[in-house]
Amino acid sequence: MKQDFDELIDRIGTNSIKYDFAVERGKPENTIPLWVADMDFKAPAAVTNALIKAAQHGIFGYSESKSGYVDAISHWFKDRFDWTIKPEWLVKTPGVVYAIATAIRSLTVEGDAVLIQQPVYYPFAEAILMNHRKLINNALVYENGAYHIDFEDFEEKIKMNKVKLFILCSPHNPVGRVWTKEELTRLGFICIKYNVIVVADEIHADFTYKGQKHTIFASIAPEFSNISILCTAPSKTFNLAGLQVSNIFIANKNIKKKFQEEIVRSGYSQLNTMGLIACQAAYEKGARWLDELKEYLEGNLEFIRTFLKEYLPQVKLVEPQGTYLVWLDFQALDLSEKELEMLIANHAKLWLDHGTMFGSEGEGFQRINIACPRAILEKAFLQLEKAVNDVTTTS
Question: Which residue, among 204, 229, 245, has the nearest Cα to 69 in the 3D structure?
Answer without folding.
Answer: 245
